[in-house]
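Hi all, posting the design record for the shared folder.

TITLE: backbone redesign
STEP: 1 of 1
STRUCTURE INPUT:
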């Protein structure tokens, strides 16, 4: 959900019901009627909208939002309200990131990355009419991804691949490489897509099949190498991102409730279109320590990088961040030079640069190896 340009909700004319005007209306009744409560900024009190309105009037018109219907944790809501959560700040500050010093180990694995698998996987993902989270195609794409990630992982029997179920029929996928420590290092990407409405053709090549195939290729090499990490590694493939960070929100809400210790989450959303030829490291919903660490790794392995901010709830790292976990976000370009085809039928296979995909896979591999020693 990284947008080419941001249009403020005040510039769009359509009928929504604000949370303020519904103060006397039963919350659950609204949910049962098929409405969802969303926020478009820290100061927005919220609006009740249908699923179709979320996609057509917000995502399709490049308005950032977070679906807060299922968020009951006051600390998480405070983050999305722009308030400071002191307990979160203290917890994140307790994680320290070392110098970059494992190039020999990482480079041996990086040398095994190719674009052969990514080309096949991208073709399969973009061949779905769309991957909208409530469509039959969305469910089918989740099943395809689950089976393919299991196949990629099969070389190492210690790797587990599971589906994380939601209230809608598009499970997220989690691949886990167990370490000697239960501490988690997570890399992530969303796999749902939209073409601007729930029924539009939405191949979602750059946004975000490209991020998925980056993770898949990195996982393939680690599985074949039977890599045995110290920290436990997880590869997250989220559903429902375009509908307000639904999949990642459910997962990190669960991780917080069950007390999982996450040392780092690096989210990749768009990794296939890069006129600059550089990875872009974004500033917002990112933690200072992890952000600096990510940039040290980019510099050490790939050279210079670009930077930008992506806006309110722009991608799944915001879910990790709001639940108190160290988070960072990388993509292929600053906003002003990113793909012009986002959220349209034109976000097609033919627009993807596999040199860019490979660059992101190299970074992801370098990050995972280096973070193994956090």
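Okay, here is what came back for every position:
SEQUENCE:
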């Amino acid at each position: 959900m990284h947008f080419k340009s941001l249009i403020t909700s005040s510039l769009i004319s359509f009928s929504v019901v604000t949370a303020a005007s519904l103060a006397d209306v039963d919350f659950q009744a609204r949910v049962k009627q098929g409405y969802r409560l969303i926020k478009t900024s820290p100061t927005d009190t919220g609006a009740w909208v249908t699923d179709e309105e979320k996609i057509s009037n917000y995502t399709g018109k490049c308005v950032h939002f977070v679906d807060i219907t299922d968020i009951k944790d006051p600390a998480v809501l405070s983050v999305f309200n722009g308030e400071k959560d002191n307990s979160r700040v203290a917890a994140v500050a307790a994680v320290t990131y070392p110098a970059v010093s494992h190039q020999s180990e990482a480079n041996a694995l990086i040398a095994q990355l190719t674009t052969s698998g990514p080309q096949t996987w991208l073709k399969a993902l973009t061949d779905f009419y769309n991957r909208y989270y409530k469509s039959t195609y969305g469910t089918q794409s989740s099943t395809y991804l689950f089976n393919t990630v299991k196949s990629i992982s099969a070389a190492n029997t210690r790797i587990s691949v599971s589906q994380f179920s939601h209230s809608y029929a598009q499970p997220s996928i989690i691949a886990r490489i167990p370490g000697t420590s239960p501490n988690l290092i997570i890399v992530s990407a969303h796999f749902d897509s939209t073409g601007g409405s729930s029924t539009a053709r939405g191949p979602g090549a750059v946004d975000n099949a490209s991020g998925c195939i980056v993770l898949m290729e990195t996982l393939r090499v680690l599985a074949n190498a039977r890599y045995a990490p110290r920290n436990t590694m997880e590869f997250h493939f989220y559903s429902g991102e375009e509908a307000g960070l639904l999949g990642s929100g459910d997962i990190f809400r669960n991780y917080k409730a069950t007390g999982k210790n996450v040392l780092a989450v690096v989210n990749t959303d768009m990794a296939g279109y890069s006129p600059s030829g550089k990875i872009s490291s974004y500033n917002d919903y990112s933690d200072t320590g992890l952000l600096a660490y990510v940039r040290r790794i980019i510099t050490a392995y790939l050279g210079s990088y670009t930077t930008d901010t992506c806006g309110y709830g722009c991608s799944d790292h915001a879910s990790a961040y709001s639940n108190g976990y160290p988070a960072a976000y990388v993509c292929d370009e600053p906003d002003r030079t990113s793909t012009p085809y986002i959220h349209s039928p034109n976000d097609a296979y033919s627009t993807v640069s596999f040199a860019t995909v490979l660059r992101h896979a190299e970074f992801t591999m370098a990050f995972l190896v280096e973070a193994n020693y956090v």
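COMMENT: The longest strand covers residues 181-190.
Let me know if anyone wants the other runs.
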